[in-house]
Amino acid sequence: MSGKLASDYPSWKKLQQLYDAEHSKIVLKDLFAQDPQRFSKFSREYNSTSGPDVTMLVDLSKNLITEPVLETLLELAREAKVEEYRDKMFAGEHINTSEDRAVLHVALRNFNDFKIAESGADEVSAVLDHMKEFTEAVRSGAWKGYTGKTINTIVNIGIGGSDLGPVMVTEALKPYAKRDLAAHFVSNIDGTHIAETLRLCDPETTLFIIASKTFTTQETITNAETARGWFLASAKDKAHVAKHFVALSTNTKAVTGFGIHESNMFQFWDWVGGRYSLWSAIGLSIALVIGYENFEQLLKGAHGMDKHFKETPLEDNLPVLMAVIGLWYNDFYGSQTLALLPYDQYLHKFADYFQQGDMESNGKFVTKNGQRVNYQTGPIIWGASGTNGQHSFYQLVHQGTKLIPTDFIAPTTSHNPIEHSKHHRILLSNFFAQPEALAFGKTEEEVKRELGPNASEALVKSKVFQKRKVSRHPRAYSPLFVSVGALIALYEHKIFVQGVIWGINSFDQMGVELGKVLAKNILAQLEKPEDVKGHDSSTTGLIHYYQKNRKE
Ligand code: F6P
Asked: Which UniProt keywords are given for this protein, alphabetically ordered (predicted)?
């Protein structure tokens, strides 16, 4: 990214020509018919070269790409200096320019492999040791609550990156969970969230984990204060807070001000972005649920993917390939969204997690240099676990008017092989069938043949599937904990590569600020109608309606 817009690169213009020349007409069925080697040409197998074994097959052949397109997309990545920016990230250069920060989530799972000079990187292992010690104390029962009972419930209070990662990963790794340790996650400022959670807790046996990088986030601090009040209503003595509240934060002053002792604080650093923080102390709830050893395996799985991203030529580099193909749909086909479709119940929060991961990172309309882009940036991320999605939104994906890139994800082995894996085989038959249907569709002739000569034209037409729908398959293999680490890192780096090509800063989130400021102003005006000032007529009307109708 050299002060240019992505659309200025010669390869971008070449891609536009390729699209105009044939891609508006291309069909996958023809591409497969013309080339019997298409699957082997466009699929890549990932085998980790460091840490525990992870293998993964990423089949890119059911995408609307040809060899010239892929070559040109990789040319674009080179022109945008993806490799140079990747190396800058790993070296700890301040690539988050607006906040003048390094971007070093990779340092959290590095285990002294890459040399990283940034201050704090050398403190990572001490924090991991602290997490290990604490996790083992709680899980073994050595850590006692204020009445001498062991902890059997944890409540993580955090929002955004301080919530979504722990929620997603504790679900993804549930097979390894300590089943007699209940884990709850409170994020929403809606009092219902904390109230319903506290109903499930006993103050004598509950540990609250206050997770906030800044320790100033309104939702988190308000929920934490409510939890502390609820706890003290039973415990009475503030000294007992030390046994039941710990903090995950970069802000020591605010943490100690809240009443949590520094020894119960797990540090991280400003170079850990909120949405990239599950690998840091923010992952404490994960470590508590699955055990420290498994948490470390998760980190090692991610590190293996970091190594792959750092060292593999672009042609075989999975995050790069997924990024450029995503960009091809986003910027040339005009696709607006990307659906993440894990055929794995344990990954049912995967799309929720990457809504923040991708959209907060790449939802930007100006480049790092302040120029307005003249192309689309980050896609809208959505999705649900298969096969549930098939019974809700797949109709539109198959026969609607939109082109929706889809990432199908599945593990080869189930943790629950009930009835000799009957369920898993049915699940996977759907996992294989849906992309096949998307790619090859069904022609009018085929439908006519099936229905016979007496079928009405309307019925025939309603059963036609276009042949241009697309899918990609990253498939994670067991064992799950390392695979999950690798899978998350794969998407993190995909987001990074796209951000570099679009020339945007993927590591700030200025767009969330304005709403927070306005809410603060409105909060001070909610008491009396005469205080409501400085708004448009719609906002004023809504607030007045609320003031007139509330029952408190
Ligand atoms: O929504 C904005 C944001 O800053 C996210 O980037 C972050 O993950 C979240 O709020 C929570 O922030 P904190 O960890 O500082 O409470």
From this structure: Gluconeogenesis, Glycolysis, Isomerase
Residue among 20, 545, 6, 105 at smallest CA distance from 333: 20
DSSP secondary-structure letter at 345? Answer: G
pLDDT at 479: 43
> In CATH, which of 3.20.20.70, 3.40.50.10490, 2.120.10.70, 3.30.70.1450 is domain 6-80+312-440+473-503?
3.40.50.10490
- Is 261 an active-site residue? no
Q: Which residues pair with 483 in a beta bridge?
A: none
Q: Active-site residue 348, yes or no? A: no
Catalytic site includes residue 516: yes
Tokens of 87: 């190396």
Q: Is 274 in the pocket of ligand 1 (CB under 6 A)?
A: yes
In the chain, what are the domain boundaries? 6-80+312-440+473-503, 123-294, 441-469, 513-549
Evaluate whether 6-80+312-440+473-503 and 123-294 have a shared fold.
yes
Q: What is the C-alpha to C-alpha distance for residues 379 and 187, in angstroms, rounded to an integer?
A: 25
Q: Taking the model in full, what pTM does it have?
A: 0.95
ipTM exceeding 0.95?
yes
Amino acid (1-letter code) at residue 229: G
Token output for 367: 């480049």
| Ligand 1 centroid from CA 89, angstroms | 21
Rounded Cα gap, residues 465 and 29, in angstroms: 12
pLDDT at 476 over 50: no
> For ligand 1, what atom is nearest to the CA of residue 249?
14
Q: What is the best residue among 209, 217, 218, 272 to mutate for testing ligand 1's pocket, by most ligand atoms within 8 Å of CB?
A: 217
